[in-house]
Write a structure and sequence with these properties.
alpha+beta, Serine Threonine Protein Phosphatase 5, Tetratricopeptide repeat, four-stranded antiparallel β-sheet, six-stranded antiparallel β-sheet, 10 strands, about 40% helix, 7 helices
């Protein structure tokens, strides 16, 4: 009798294992319903990395529906969205140390709260605590330029120093401006090489003046550097920059003289683009004298 019971139990166990095995084999290999993705973007000298999952609209009402107003949202699906900065970064005007942060939001109809939190091991909002918030921002949502079926994070509007994170889903978009330390580092290097190390090279003076011109920094200082570059090496591109800085400084008469010299040198070297733009500036500035 004991042997019969033992054999029966064995047959039942084998049968259950067979059923489980059949069930496993019957499961389909399907893609993630909310695909995960990672994006990398350099802003200035800083690497910005975003890791998140992308749920779809699937005919649902998103904000005020699937994502309730006034509730903490993981800003994606599955695990919490993680943003990493390789260097300190100004986020909407506030400096954030380098490191990894979870990105949460609290959507509302008229404004959102954007949160950077130091806890990065959570699934969804699990483990979130307000005491770990590093930063909270109020950001106004805007209608998106197109319909986004999948939740999308982009880093766009890049300059040497700045960029912007955009959150898009359905018909809603949110912009979070970023500023890197690039301007501080570049400016510090310029001043160190010119004022401390006393590097007396025309190319350095030109690059320094061009950086100040492009970033609308101290015009007087930029003009001084551009003039020094021209004195050391009167190249057509150096003269062209000097002309633009003179015009920005309001000295249109001197700007025309420098632009004419630049145009003549560019013509001799068959750099037609500089000839054309110099002549355009000359016509414009002569009217302002």
């Amino acid at each position: 009798m004991n042997q019969l019971k033992k054999n029966t139990r064995t047959l039942i166990a084998v049968g259950l294992l067979s059923l489980v095995s059949s069930a496993i084999r019957a499961q389909l290999n399907l893609p993630e319903p909310s695909p995960s993705t990672t994006i990398h973007q350099k802003i200035g000298f800083t690497d910005v990395t975003l890791r998140y999952s992308r749920p779809g609209v699937k005919g649902r009402i998103i904000f005020g529906g699937l994502v309730p107003f006034g509730k903490l949202w993981r800003t994606g699906a599955s695990d919490a969205t993680i943003i990493t900065f390789s260097d300190s970064m100004r986020v909407a005007g506030t400096w954030v140390p380098k490191g990894a942060y979870s990105l949460f939001t609290i959507p509302e109809d008229q404004h959102w709260t954007v949160i950077l939190n130091t806890f990065v091991e959570g699934h969804g909002t699990e483990g979130y605590s307000e005491k770990n918030d590093l930063l909270r921002l109020r950001v106004k949502p805007q209608p998106s330029t197109r319909f986004y079926e999948s939740f999308t994070i982009e880093v766009q509007d890049l300059t040497r120093n700045n960029g912007c994170i955009y959150l898009h889903w359905a018909n809603t978009s949110l912009a979070i401006p970023l500023e890197s330390t690039a301007d501080r580092r570049i400016t510090a290097e310029i001043l160190d090489r010119i004022n401390v190390k006393k590097e007396d090279r025309p190319g350095l003076y030109y690059q320094a003046a061009l950086y100040y011109f492009d970033n609308e920094k101290d015009t007087k200082q930029a003009l001084s550097w551009a003039t020094k570059a021209v004195q050391l090496k009167p190249a057509f591109n150096y003269l062209h920059l000097q002309a633009k800085l003179l015009a920005r400084h309001g000295d249109y008469k001197a700007a025309v003289v420098a632009a004419k010299q630049s145009a003549e040198m560019a013509k001799a070297e068959k750099i037609i683009d500089y000839v054309i733009i110099n002549n355009q500036f000359i016509a414009e500035w002569e009217k302002k004298q």
